[in-house]
Amino acid sequence: MSQRQVLQVFEQYQRARTQFVQAVAELAARPQNVGLLQSAGVVSLLRPLLLDVVPTVQQSAALALGRLADCNNDLAEAVVKGDILPQLLCSLSEQNRFYKKAAAFVLRAVGKHSPQLAQAIVQCGALEMLVICLEDFDPGVKEAASWALTYIARHNSELSQAVVDAGAVPLLVLCIQEPEIALKRIAASTLSDISKHSPELAQTVVDAGAIAHLAQMILNPDAKLKRQVLSALSQIAKHSVDLAELVVEAEIFPVVLTCLKDSDEYVKKNGATLIREIAKHTPELSQLIVNAGGVAAVIDCIGSCRGTVRLPGIMTLGYVAAHSENLSMAVIVSKGIPPLCVCLIEEHEDHIKAAAAWALGLIGRHTPEHAHAVAAANVLPTLLAMYLNTNSSEDLQMKTKKALKNILQKCTHLPALESLLHDAPLNIMKYIVGQFSKVLPHDSKARRLFVTTGGLKKIQEIKAEPGSLLQEYINTINSCYPEEVVRYYSPGYPETLLERVENYHPVF
Asked: 77: how many CB neighbours lie within 10 A of its CB?
């Protein structure tokens, strides 16, 4: 065989390998082909091609493996069990940018499925290689490495700590300062996933100087970047007062309030979430939000959107109102009650209704004035109906019951109390009757009205346990009226009168 023939054979072999990996990579891009490729044992066929002498073959093999692993857990496990990861990482630092991106894609595709698969990536030493890729000159390589790191870090605190220990955080902070928007997005997302697990991990991100750079990007015109920036700041702020104060000190107010008017719903939601995570900690932080016009902005946001986008705004109002009478009154003055009532009626998801009920309960729990503001919105019958509805979730029933208790214990607005008097079960009735027992002894006009509206008659129909608190309240109310009036409205009294008529013998 001549030298020319030998070269032709090798050229044919190289073309065949190239055609094979490229064809598999194209087929793997379509989910309907994955099952057939899997049954054909394509993973084991691709494995040796990762060490091929031809760079194009290596890159296409890695891309094909990444697409396969991305499709389902079984193929991702096959990549791990096939001992492919060590081969993938072999001399990665010396490879070109195309192979690095493809290798990072495989790690991302494997790591996304479960903590166990992500742990396998950590154990094979991939984090060190990914951190090296974060220092690469090519922004696409940095982006691919950051994608892989975020899929590893998001699972749990142990994996997130492994990413931190590998030295990724300072490099990720540098990445959010790069000019490429796509790189900024994924680096911010990775910092968010690292921060979310614990105060210690969030503090690591803070110590690397992330907050200042993230805060500067809140007004970036790119919506997807804003989403990730707001998420990262939220994940930092949620853990403690100190971390929340550090976020506030980066002068995010009033800038962040503009996000609540953004056309992108996820920007709205993440902006409201950031405000919520700050508001929940202390009265002082909530007061800062009020002073910046945050409560009014959140209320407008709730009114301008639907569904889960409303949820963080609803919770923000609840947290603010919970801290003190003055802050609760700030929510009332800013007209926060009507949109919360609308959420109770409009929304279909029980967890959103439950949040609205929770917030209303926290607004109304402070003083009679607060309770009156809530009761005057005619929301108490709605809360009661949701509590009594057997189709309501357990959480919604619990939240509406708690809200009713909070409001009723302070409510002296008798028309609102009377609206519940005929439908409330005994466990709610005791709060209603308790409030009547406090008001009626000192208000003659209210006592008269209580008779004419049928309230006194209803009280006599309640079957309270002797010696119970409810019975004591009933006794207190009855003591406000002449005995014959109480007797007149007691059950069975008309029959007693008729018997007396029948038994009466007139004297002529």
From this structure: 17
